[in-house]
Amino acid sequence: MNLPVTQGHVLHYAEFGNPAGIPLLFVHGGPGSGCNPAHAMLLHPNGFRIIQVDQRGCGQSTPKGRLLGNRTAALVRDMEALRQHLGIQHWAIYGGSWGTTLALEYAKQYPQRVLGLLLRGVFLARLEDWEWFSLPHGVAQQFPLAYQTLLDTLSPRQGENPINSLYRQLLNPRTPLETAYRYALAWDAWEAAVMGLPAPAFDPDATHWQARLHRARVYSHYCVNHFFLLPTGVLPNLTTLQHLPISVVHGVKDQVCRFASVHALTNALPQTQLFAVEAGHGMHEPALQNAVQHAASTLHATLIRTQL
């Protein structure tokens, strides 16, 4: 199903689970990724009416990879537009990684519409969180060879964040398509190294390149613009959410979004129920999948009790 929004963007959304259940919005990560229907099945589909939506330029939303009007505030407004379109009065929100940022931003702006939050792999979008992942003094210290390979491929200018180099090349119309594809692969290989996944292989079929390039364009667009948020990310005004039930699933071995982020969140929102897992960041890990399933069932039970 599709929902036209502003600046020519058309959002793709789909529903899963129990049509009569508590509505739950699924906010995917990235930025630049899309929804995975298999992940919806982890969110207690017997109890929740799960709505997955691909963000602007992502997944099956169109135009693919479009950056015009693609900002954090616009994504938050899109979430509210979808709620109104579906005639939903109140809903819970699930967000994973970058999706946690959007879930928290939406809840701050529309607190009267949110029943509760389930967050997985908390990303607060602070400047320090991004620098940890992208600059030499952060997680690169633990993966020096993978980081050097990234630098060798992207060739950033002196003192330049490599993501800025990727962004420049992707938006340069003179960059050959194959070269742009190899740059996008290099960044994905860096992410894979940090997450303990195999590096993506070069695909000689050029008809498959655009999907990865679209993701990389949206991803780097948000990163170079510091996610269109203040350096403190989502932390301002978090205390306005102290009335909400909030569950957090986070891997204690997560090197993409450090566990220290959870402490910053729980300091602001002490009512948060934390599910710490012996895992990293990726939803490919069974321990994370099991924890999300448990947390979703727990949140559903909490919402049922509060509605009685």
Description:
This protein has 308 residues and is an alpha/beta fold. Helices cover 41% and strands 15% of the residues. It has 10 helices and 8 strands. It has helices at residues 37-40, 72-86, 98-109, 127-134, 144-154, 162-171, 177-195, 209-224, 260-268, 286-307, and strands at residues 2-4, 10-17, 22-27, 48-53, 91-96, 114-120, 246-251, 273-277. A hairpin with a 5-residue loop joins strand 1 (2-4) and strand 2. The radius of gyration is 19 Å and the shape is globular. The chain starts with a strand and ends with a helix.
Strand residues, percent: 15-25%
Largest sheet: 8 strands, mixed
In the CATH scheme, the class of the largest domain would be Alpha Beta
Taken together, the total number of domains comes to 2
Q: What is the averaged pLDDT score?
A: 97
CATH superfamily of the largest domain: Alpha/Beta hydrolase fold, catalytic domain
Computed CA radius of gyration, to the nearest angstrom: 19 Å
Q: Count of helices?
A: 10
Q: Roughly how much helix do the residues carry, as a percent range?
A: 40-55%
- Described by the principal axes of the CA atoms, the overall outline is globular
Q: How many strands?
A: 8
Strand order of the largest sheet: 1-2-4-3-5-6-7-8
